[in-house]
Amino acid sequence: MSEEVKESELLMPLDEYLKVGLHIGTKFRTKAMSKFIYKVRQDSLAVLNIQSVNEKLRLASKLLSFYEPDEILIVCRRENGWIPAKLFSELTGIKSITKRYPPGILTNKNLENFREAKLIFVVDPLPDKNAVDDALKVGIVVIGLCDTNNEVNNLDLVVPCNNKGRKSLGLIFWLLAREYLKSKNKLQSEKDMAYNLDVFCAD
User: Fold this and answer.
1) What is the mean pLDDT of residues 101-107?
2) What is the mean pLDDT of residues 56-70?
3) Which end of the chain, N or C, is surrounded by fewer C-beta atoms within 10 Å?
C-alpha cells in the first residue's frame, strides 16, 4: 500500500480495509482500471490504491445521500453480495434486487414489478450488465463497484474495489449504510446500527 495513506482521511481504519482484502484485485487488468492500481504482486494479483478506493467510496456515499430510499435501487447478481445487500436494504429502506435482475423493470411501465429510480448501484457491471443497460436507456445515474478486470462503460461513478469477496462486499455495504443513515440524520453513532460490521462480513 502507498505510504502516503493518512488514517485521518479514511472512512474506516486502514486495518479494516486490509483485513477484508478490499484492495486485492484480480490477475486481469483492464486499461480503464489501471489508474487505480498501486502495484502488481509476485503472484500477479493487482493491488488497488487504498486512497483511491476510499476517495471513491466517499464520493459514492455522498452521491447516495442526495436521494431518498425509494429513488435508489441496488442490483447484485454476485452471490457473495446477496446477504450484505439485503442487510443494507433493511437498515436504509433502499430496495435491493439480488440473484437475477428482472428484464425491463426500469423501462417497461406495463410490468407489475416496474420500478422508477433515479440512481442504481451495481455490485459488478459485468453480471449486472442488463441493469446498467436499462439505466442507460432511461437516463438514470449508475454507481458501479469495479474490480481490476472490469470495464467501466456507462458508469457515472466507478468505485475501485474487490467486488467479489464476501467480506469486502460486507464492509462496503456496512460502510455505505452507516454513511447514508448519517446523511439522513438517522444515526448518531455507528454503535446504534442494528447490525455491526461483523454481521455484514460473516461467512
Assistant:
1) 92
2) 97
3) C
How many CB atoms within 10 Å of residue 80? Answer: 20
Which residues are CB-neighbours of 34 under 8 A, at least 6 positions away?
Answer: none
CA distances from 112 to 103, 104, 165 (A): 12, 11, 33
Integer Cα distance of 193 and 170 in angstroms: 14
**Confidence class of residue 4 from pLDDT cuts 50, 70 and 90?**
low
Sheet containing strand 157-160, edge to edge, reads 95-98, 72-76, 119-122, 141-146, 157-160
φ and ψ at residue 194, rounded to 5 degrees = -65, -30
Strand 95-98 and strand 72-76: the pairing is parallel
Query: Cα separation of 153 and 150, whole Å?
Result: 9
In this structure, CATH architecture of domain 7-201: 3-Layer(aba) Sandwich (3.40)
Ranges of each domain in the chain: 7-201
